[in-house]
Amino acid sequence: MESRPLADPPPAGGPFGVITLFHVLEHLVDPRGALELLGSWLAPDGRLVVEVPNVETRSTAPHHRFHRAHLYGFNTVTLDACGEAAGLTALEHMTTPDGGTITTVFAGGESTAATATLGGNANRVRRALNDYTNARHYLGGTLFRQQCRKLARNARVWWATRGLSDPVDAIRRAVGAEAAHARH
């Protein structure tokens, strides 16, 4: 595992089977360019796992919705469109039970997705943002439970990915276990 600036030359040892980008894309000036670059580092059957905050979330207080360091806000539609513009194909989406985080697994190669789904996306996001008020957030009684779930998920992902050869599967299992737990 290696952490490095994207502007550096490609790391040795590529092409790569899995590249992860957790809560980074929303901070970048050129997210499409970053996905394109990372996609070029993938092996033919490689996967790029991208996790971002969900702009439509109801797990964050409305007055904390937009972080100063977040240059972009994504939902599954815009994340897919960004990946498609970078020449990637979205294979799988995972969302935390509280809806606060989106994880998308991309593969290299030309996307077959249609960007036509962007048409109504702005209105959908606007409705989601307008409908969720501070009063609903603080009086809804879910704030404490949300924080406990996030902590448990992070612990499961950390334990599940240690020493495994397929971190994408481990992340999928950890998120799936959380979703199953939330249903009970």
Structure description:
The protein is an alpha+beta fold and 184 residues long. It has one domain: Rossmann fold (3-Layer(aba) Sandwich). 40% of the residues lie in helices and 18% in strands. It is built from six helices and four strands; from the N terminus they run βαβαββαααα. The chain has helices at 31-40, 76-85, 121-131, 134-139, 143-161, 167-183, and strands spanning 16-22, 42-53, 89-95, 101-107. A four-stranded mixed beta sheet has the order 1-2-4-3, sandwiched between helices. Helix 5 packs antiparallel against helix 6 (167-183). The model has no long low-confidence stretch (mean pLDDT 79).
The total strand number stands at 4
Largest sheet: 4 strands, mixed
CATH topology: Rossmann fold
Helix content: 25-40%
User: Would you identify the regions where 5 or more consecutive residues have pLDDT less than 50?
Assistant: none
* Spatial shape: globular
Distance between the termini: 35 Å
Rounded mean pLDDT is 79
Task: Write the H/E string, N to C.
Answer: EHEHEEHHHH
The CATH architecture designation is 3-Layer(aba) Sandwich
CATH class type: Alpha Beta
Count of runs of 4 or more consecutive helical residues? 6
Number of domains: 1
Radius of gyration, taken over Cα atoms and rounded to an integer in Å = 17 Å
What share of the residues does DSSP label as strand, in percent?
Answer: 15-25%
